[in-house]
Amino acid sequence: MAPTKTVVVLGAGVAGLSLAHFLVSRILPEQPDLRVVLVSPLTHFYFNLASVRFVLPGRGPPMAEDRYLFPIAERFAGYPHADRFRFIAGAATSLHPESNSVTVKPNDEAKEEEIAYHTLVIATGTSYAGGMPWKALGSTDQTRAAVAQLQSQIGSASSIVVGGAGATGVEFSGELGAAYAKKGLKKITLLSADPLPLEPRLKDSVRQTAKKELEKLGVEFVGGARMVSVTPAAGGSGSSSDKDKKDIAIEVTSADGKTKTTKTVTADLFVPTYGVVYNTSFAPPSMHSPASPGRLLQDPDLRARGHRNVFVLGDAGSLEPAQAVTAEAQARHLMKQFRTYLAGGTIETYYTPAKDKVMFGLTVGPDRGTGQVGTFQPPSLLIWWLKGRYLGTNHAANYAAGIGSSNGAWPK
Ligand SMILES: Cc1cc2nc3c(=O)[nH]c(=O)nc-3n(C[C@H](O)[C@H](O)[C@H](O)COP(=O)(O)OP(=O)(O)OC[C@H]3O[C@@H](n4cnc5c(N)ncnc54)[C@H](O)[C@@H]3O)c2cc1C
């Protein structure tokens, strides 16, 4: 039987890639009229969770690329029904839910392609402004190049200012602190817009712990500080080592919020860790959340609001905080519901307010960390054991194979 229904999955991150593997290996054998199309601008799965560590050049060679970049297409080639799977290295550019079609621009072709779908899954996640490799860039090569550039810049800098003290900024500063500041090799400064690092949804004690752990590693934490501009440094000796120095103007608000002062920090390198961009501009405005700009409205059953045959998973959706644990949980929920959905049955709700419980683990250098589970603050040793030792690279190949942290167990 020739396939008549196409399931299109946009995005090959934690959410989209695992769902695509499940559909091809479990659903295609049962559904001869189905085919699956996976669209991703990267030909590789990028395990960005460890980026805060692998962007450091390391004392010997940097972390091997095959621990965080995994080819996508060849993993699908071994499935018995691979003839009904198509991988497009490209990006969705516009979505037309009224006609059940999505326009895709393949990386290597000038012409766009219109793909009609029976079901669409949007899992296009986020990127970072300024080409920072905290998440994937526009292609595997661009991502690789951004990692290599940052490694080289970090290697040659004597002083580094990190802008933004969210989880990425704290984890990255922690890695820099452990590798360099603690040993007196480089000066590391972290600028935080809030008086404390991390998000206000976390307990103050967790945020205080993160600050103290950074300071133990020799990182200078500047709270209440906003970066105003980064310009080539004025003055200097004119020597080649001074040539690339930057003047980073920052506005510092006093702890009581009453006064603002401007000061300038001079450093060799400024690394922003803020500027999350939701990769959803291809979707019509009606699908966007007014409350969370950039994110797409998700119903509690993970459908896009108002569209029965469109699902939204992971960071691109508006339901939950942008975390891999939630992206994975959402993808696994849809796996469990997919047969019922195809049969026209009623699928189960994913989201309940009980899911609002905070679940957060943060490394501060390879040896320490903090976090929050509900209201409980796990000890540093537990975070190190669960996360900091490998930063998930021990599970990265499983994520690339679509089985995530479940050790091979897919929903039946
Ligand atoms: C430095 C860092 C560390 C983190 N550590 C943790 C952690 O320890 N624990 C945790 O739970 N979370 C962590 N996170 C968050 C985690 O990375 C994300 O929540 C997770 O990657 C979301 O997965 P996703 O599949 O929704 O989206 P993404 O991982 O963003 O993947 C989106 C995919 O869509 C593709 N894409 C983009 N645009 C298009 C388009 N137009 N068409 C088709 N495809 C497109 C992308 O190339 C990519 O393949 C971390 C984030 C950062 C930045």
What are the salient characteristics of this protein?
single chain, 412 residues, alpha/beta, FAD/NAD(P)-binding domain, 2 domains, seven-stranded mixed β-sheet, four-stranded parallel β-sheet, 10 helices, binds flavin-adenine dinucleotide, FAD/NAD(P)-binding domain-containing protein
How many alpha or pi helices? 10
**Class derived from helix and strand content:** alpha/beta
Outline: globular
Q: For the terminal residues, how far apart are their CA atoms?
A: 25 Å
CATH superfamily of the largest domain: FAD/NAD(P)-binding domain
Count of the separate structural domains: 2
| Helical residue percent band | 25-40%
Model description:
The structure is a single chain. α1 runs parallel beside α8 and α5 (167-181) runs parallel beside α6 (204-216). The chain has helices spanning 14-27, 51-54, 73-77, 140-156, 167-181, 204-216, 240-243, 324-342, 380-388, 396-400; strands at residues 5-10, 34-40, 44-46, 69-71, 85-96, 101-106, 113-116, 119-122, 126-128, 159-163, 187-191, 220-222, 225-232, 246-253, 260-267, 269-272, 276-278, 310-312, 359-363, 369-373. The two termini are 25 Å apart. The mean pLDDT is 92. It is built from ten helices and 20 strands. It is 25% helix and 25% strand. The protein has 412 residues and is an alpha/beta fold. β10, α5 (167-181) and β11 (187-191) form a beta-alpha-beta unit. The protein folds into two domains: 5-131 and 276-352, 3-Layer(bba) Sandwich (FAD/NAD(P)-binding domain), CATH 3.50.50.60; 158-267, 3-Layer(bba) Sandwich (FAD/NAD(P)-binding domain). The protein is globular and about 70 Å long. Strands 7-6-5-2-1-8-18 form a seven-stranded mixed beta sheet. A four-stranded parallel beta sheet has the order 12-11-10-16. A three-stranded antiparallel beta sheet has the order 13-14-15, with no helix packed on it. The chain binds flavin-adenine dinucleotide. Flavin-adenine dinucleotide (FAD) binds next to α1, β2, α2, β5 and α8.
